[in-house]
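Section 5.1 Outputs to date
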Amino acid sequence: MGKVLERFSEHLTALTHSEKHVLYYIEDHLDEAKTMALTKMAEANSVSTTTIVRMCHKLGLDGFAELKYILKTIAATTLPTNQDPIKRYVGDITQSLGAIKHEDLERIAGEMNKANRLVVLSVGLTKMAGEYLSKRLMQLNQTSTYIYESHMIDLISNWINRNDLVIFISSSGETSTLLKAADKLAHLNVPSVAVTNNPDSPLHELTDYAVSAPVQKMTYAGYDLSARSTLVMLCDLIFEYILKIVAEEGKEE
């Protein structure tokens, strides 16, 4: 998945065939699209200008002008061609493990253990990490719900309560759907956790607890190469910490 598609991944299912065609065109012609007028883009894709504007609205934007602004912030290539991917991964994992605090994992595991219900939210390329954590929790007979569809995430404030715990999983910590949900939950005083690859993300600011595995943001030839495997690593650590709590409680009984 390229950078443009990754940026709007949570909205792709809402697009029609023609609207997706335009977005794919932008992905494949990013440099041209950054300066292309609305009418020219419509001609290049054999669609109406209305189709493009409607696509922008479905992407959560005010219009074509905002889309152009976002496209200009997306770099074409940020990956050094002579960099060894294995060394980059070793560096990411080493740095991440060094940054994770034992106390943060203990607090998160403690909150998870006492919650009535755990709700795991993740979208886009991080969906697999959310599903993974949810299935691990099932092994402990923890009541958990995994949600990855944006329209369902938007409705979470209608049924969640203060005895539950919501776990947000996001590589960037900047996904708009998750940020909106986290903001709503903060106003409702519903406890929440952020699991990200970005310790300086706005998602960390909106949640009560957070743990992060800082990795290098890497893109090349339009594709996002930033590691998501570190999110799975964080999920494994969280699972181990809560497993220890559950096991200790079992001994006491």
